[in-house]
Design a protein that fits this description.
- This protein is 39% helix and 19% strand.
- With 349 residues, the protein is of the alpha/beta class.
- It has 2 domains: 191 residues, 3-Layer(aba) Sandwich (Isopropylmalate Dehydrogenase), CATH 3.40.718; 138 residues, Isopropylmalate Dehydrogenase (3-Layer(aba) Sandwich), CATH 3.40.718.
- The strands form 2 sheets. Strands 2-1-3-12-11-4-5-10-8-9 form a 10-stranded mixed β-sheet, with helices on both faces. Strands 6-7 form a two-stranded antiparallel sheet.
- The longest helix has 17 residues.
- 45% of the residues are buried.
- It binds nicotinamide-adenine-dinucleotide, 3-isopropylmalic acid (IPM) and manganese (II) ion (MN).
């Protein structure tokens, strides 16, 4: 029996997690779920985000499923740092694995593009996210605000190595380093040196490099040229929203926060979407695909594929929420996917 901690969180996270659990239930796997209340409501009631004893309790789980955090009633950063980043950092989930694969060519806004299958390997514990910095003379005209970008050799080496190993294991051909080493001549010089030095051990993998600005342009112009992209934390955050939009939208983009030797957490790329929360309009597919990644990670490869296949079927049949041009409600899409994975014979292959 595998134990999964479920943190629905805020806004549409709560709605999409409900549907993702339905889909998981329909597979009748030996899984046990424990739900945790962390998020805005819990914070507003108790003043707590995530305490040390919560982390202690979570460490015994086999994986975490997270919806989203963030709420207009709470100052930005409190829940994001206090829950999401705390989990990523505490459990040293140093890889943020974000596939951007076009499952159905009708859903890209790009003309005449069908072949988009990119995996972003985003560094997940350092960079501009590390939380190093502070204010001087706050709220005066001399105010200085500093937020430092942290890059450690160990941190860069392990993410580059992961990208290379991942490419090799998955039979992918190329790893592209995306940085800004023409300007960040210390921080990203380290990335350059590590990438090309470590890259020598991976002769079977093609290696290349793009500056982040050009890469953003080329993602739109010719996404088919990319395979695996390894990049620092902040660039990975921005580029994966862009790549999501190229492959059907945030409603379809899933991710894994991976610690290859420890606890990992799976979540949609999107946030709590306060603009549509509570209206039954959220697309649950991103969270459902996060569950597919979670199951794959736990060794249920076949079931992971079944889920991906069910989502492809829903896309093909046009069973969609409004973000993708449909008129179905969150719950209807969840029910539909659960029915497909729970016995629809056209899904089993
Ligand atoms: P967002 O991803 O929540 O929403 C961006 C836009 O995409 C919105 O218009 C939203 O309606 C739409 N959208 C997102 N997911 C959708 C879905 N599943 N179905 C249909 N439409 C969808 O980003 P935001 O508005 O910038 O952030 C809202 C809050 O979420 C903030 O508090 C932010 O900090 C937080 N956030 C959390 C996470 C996370 O928990 N992993 C990720 C991103 C943002
Ligand atoms: C994401 C989110 C988070 C990030 C925020 C909410 C901390 O945008 O998962 O992409 O920037 O990593
Ligand atoms: Mn983001």
């Amino acid at each position: 029996m595998k134990k999964i901690a479920v943190i629905p969180g805020d806004g549409i996270g709560r709605e999409t997690v409900t549907e993702a659990l339905k889909v998981m239930d329909a597979l009748s796997l030996p899984l046990q779920f424990d739900e945790f209340p962390f998020g805005a409501e819990y914070y507003l009631k108790t003043g707590k985000t995530l305490e040390d004893d919560d982390l202690e309790e979570l460490k015994d789980f086999d994986a975490i499923l997270l919806g989203a955090v963030g709420d207009p009633r709470v100052k930005p950063g409190i829940l994001e740092r206090g829950i999401l980043l705390k989990l990523r950092f505490h459990f040293d989930m140093y890889v943020n694995l974000r596939p951007a694969k076009l499952l159905d060519a009708r859903f890209t806004p790009l003309k005449n593009k069908r072949d988009i299958d990119i995996v972003f390997v985003r560094e997940n514990t350092e960079g501009l996210y590390a939380g190093s910095g502070g204010f001087l003379h706050k709220n005066t005209e001399y105010e200085v605000a500093i937020q430092e970008m942290i890059n450690t050799r160990r941190g860069v080496e392990r993410i580059v190595r992961f990208a290379m190993e991942y490419a090799r294991k998955k039979g992918r051909k190329k790893v592209t380093l995306c940085d800004k080493s023409n300007v960040l001549t210390y921080a990203h010089d380290l990335w350059q040196r590590v990438f090309w030095e470590l890259g020598k051990r991976y002769e079977d993998i093609k290696k290349d490099h793009e500056y982040v600005d050009a890469l953003a342009m080329k993602l739109v112009r010719s996404p088919e040229r990319f395979d695996v992209i390894v990049t620092p934390n902040m660039f990975g955050d921005i580029l994966t929203d862009l790549a999501a939009e190229l492959t059907g939208g945030l409603g379809l983009a899933a991710s894994g926060n991976i610690n290859p030797e420890g606890l990992s957490m799976f979540e949609p790329v999107h946030g709590s979407a306060p603009d549509i929360a509570g209206k039954g309009m959220a697309n649950p597919m991103a969270t459902v695909l996060a569950v597919s990644m979670l199951l794959d990670f736990l060794g249920f490869e076949r079931e992971a594929k079944v889920i991906e296949h069910a989502v492809s079927t829903a896309l093909r049949e046009g069973f969609l929420t409004p973000d993708m041009g449909g008129d179905k409600r969150t719950e209807e899409v969840g029910d539909y996917l659960a029915r497909l994975v729970g016995g629809g014979e056209d899904v089993w292959f």
